[in-house]
Amino acid sequence: MPSAMSHLGRRFITVEGIEGVGKSTNMAFIGAWLEERGQRVTVTREPGGTPGAEAIRRLVLDTGRDQIPDQSELLLMFAARAAHLQTLIVPALEAGDFVLCDRFTDASYAYQGYGRGLSLESIATLETLVQGDLRPQLTILLDGSFELSVARRAGRTETDRFEREQLAFFERVRSGYLAIAAEQPGRVKRVGAEQSLADVQRNIALVLTASYPEFS
Ligand code: TMP
Fold first, then answer.
1. Residue 76: which residues within 8 A CB-CB, separation 6 or more?
2. What pLDDT shows up at residue 2?
3. Which of 14, 35, 45, 57 is deepest in the core (most CB within 10 A)?
């Protein structure tokens, strides 16, 4: 992807966090916040977002399959991402939309890197290969404990390959996300997910206003 693409990331927002911390609810809040300010918003998710990438999502999340080696899992995430970028994310950004994405490459660092133990350098190599220098301008990390995640997921009947993982895995993933936030404080903004929803959304609005002062 040519380097001229990098400016496109200005309208690219991602939301991250372990399962059950309120990503869906707060994605809707962010989308509405932008639309209220007259912005067009393309809302999408990873892995997935396009028919081809959603097929890869089913492959990688389905519990009924043979064990998927960790390296295959990582490559499938980036295979889906390459299709998603080319077919949906880059065209939407080029058209002037905001793109609001439920998870992106930070999830590959957190889950495949910190969670599964794959090398962060190899993930960085794939990131450059697939994205060139396109990065989100803003990443909101909803940070909550494994206990919160389990409590919030209690009503869900279906579980995928990741949701079957145990405490130690999610603690590694969570601390991976926190490490990324500490390394890239300009881009990644941590919002505590244990607060009331009203407080979470107040904090998200503050982050959005700071990142996009033209809409304040
Ligand atoms: P979710 O859409 O319900 O959050 O499920 C997606 C799952 O995929 C979630 O457990 C995190 C995982 N995932 C990775 O492991 N690596 C990635 O790069 C992405 C985008 C997701």
1. 47, 56, 59, 60, 68
2. 43
3. 14
For residue 14, the CA-to-ligand 1 centroid distance in Å is 13
- The neighbouring-strand residues paired with 16 are 141
Report the C-alpha gap between 122 and 190 in whole angstroms. Answer: 25
Mutate to test the pocket of ligand 1, among 101, 114, 127, 162 (most ligand atoms within 8 A of CB): 162
Two structure tokens written together for 30: 């962010």
State the residue for tokens 């960790």: 70
Residue 196 burial (CB count, 10 A)? 8
pLDDT tens by residue, 80-130? 999 999 999 999 999 999 999 999 999 999 999 999 999 999 999 999 999
pTM value is: 0.95
Length of the chain: 216
Of the pLDDT bands very low, low, confident and very high (cuts 50, 70, 90), residue 5 is low
C-alpha 74/C-alpha 122 separation (Å) is 10
| Order of all β-strands in the sheet with 98-102 | 41-45, 98-102, 12-16, 138-143, 188-192
- Lining residues, ligand 1, CB within 6 Å: 19, 45-47, 77, 103, 107-108, 111-112, 162
